[in-house]
Write a structure and sequence with these properties.
The first copy, chain A, is of the alpha+beta class. Chain A has one domain: Mth169, Chain: A. The first copy, chain A, has two helices and three strands, in the order βαβαβ. A three-stranded antiparallel β-sheet of chain A has the order 2-1-3. The longest helix of chain A is centred in the C-terminal third of the chain and has 13 residues. The first copy, chain A, starts with a strand and ends with a strand. In chain A, 28% of the residues are buried. The model of chain A has no long low-confidence stretch (mean pLDDT 93). Chains A and B meet through strand 1, helix 1, strand 2 and helix 2 of A and strand 1, helix 1, strand 2 and helix 2 of B. Strand 2 of chain A pairs antiparallel with strand 2 of chain B.
């Protein structure tokens, strides 16, 4: 039985407007950080997974993203699997 | 003038309860992903920064994190600077 730490990055697609990012951008500029050109906000999901079969962890997490973790209409996701010391 | 892409990961400190993560965990299990042991949700902030002085981009973004992007009482942050082709 191996343990994995999986990092999932969920970002809005580049064509989708990001009002939260725009508001962070304008707040940063008001604070004096004029060098910031753009800001976009996404989600970072960290999963701990226990599984005997190493091969299909990435595949299973991709399925989780499609079914629950992301909205495929407006978001892209990226899965990174790291093996963990148990 | 160089352009940088900066990725900021903001995560709840390990000792802080994460109700959103718990609810994702239970939803994943109900969907049949019983191998998931834990889930924690953080923020991913992507900044585009234009700056002449390469040295202090990381320092400036760390200041942004302290002042606006994170809540240092309950969150940790991690800054990664990439140079971008302009």
């Amino acid at each position: 039985m191996k343990e994995y730490r999986v990092k999932v990055e969920v970002k809005l697609k580049p064509v989708v407007l990001d009002p939260q990012g725009k508001s962070v951008l304008s707040a940063l500029r008001n604070l004096g950080f004029g060098e910031v050109e753009d800001a976009r906000i996404g989600k970072l999901i960290e999963l701990t997974i226990k599984d005997g079969d190493s091969g299909n962890v990435e595949e299973r997490v991709t399925e989780m993203c499609r079914k629950l973790l992301s909205n495929p209409v407006i978001e892209n996701f990226d899965v990174k699997v790291e093996e963990k010391n148990v």
